[in-house]
């Protein structure tokens, strides 16, 4: 079976934007199975000659801080179960939040390979924003922009390199 890369992070950081850029039009149709939550999208991708499945977690928009925390936690745990590598996405514009730290804690305990993607680094002037996220403890964060499509090659180099 193909290795699985999962994109995890709190709502609105840009997970779906990056997922769509990576899969192009290779969205996978997944049958409803018991125990599989419907708010996850599956697609396929290929990079450096490696084919993989990729999961966009957290498809349903939720309101309220408690609900967001609960769902972010659940998505992180599901990603740990099914993924070989996890892309942990954060947002350079809003900076590090409590929900990010919560996700980091769950991922850290799992010992799965994690790549931190700092999205919304829309111009080079903002490249410094990436350094704040070193403190998450997963090594060098990679600055990307879903709006401009920049940094996605570097992100895939790092993620596929850990498969
Ligand atoms: P998700 O909830 O994590 O799946 O996030 P989405 O992909 O739905 O994106 C949330 C919002 O952020 C949308 O309004 C996107 O257009 C916006 N967005 C995504 N990527 C970027 C980016 O690189 N820069 C900026 N400025 N906005 C972005
Ligand atoms: Mg989404």
Automatic annotation (TrEMBL):
GTP 1 binds at residues 9-16, 56-60, 119-122. One of its GO terms (biological process) is ribosome biogenesis. The keyword Nucleotide-binding applies. Residues 3-163 form the EngA-type G domain. GO terms for molecular function: GTP binding; ribosome binding. Keywords: GTP-binding, Nucleotide-binding, Repeat, Ribosome biogenesis. Belongs to the TRAFAC class TrmE-Era-EngA-EngB-Septin-like GTPase superfamily. EngA (Der) GTPase family. Associates with the 50S ribosomal subunit. GTPase that plays an essential role in the late steps of ribosome biogenesis. This is GTPase Der. It comes from Paenibacillus beijingensis. The gene is engA.
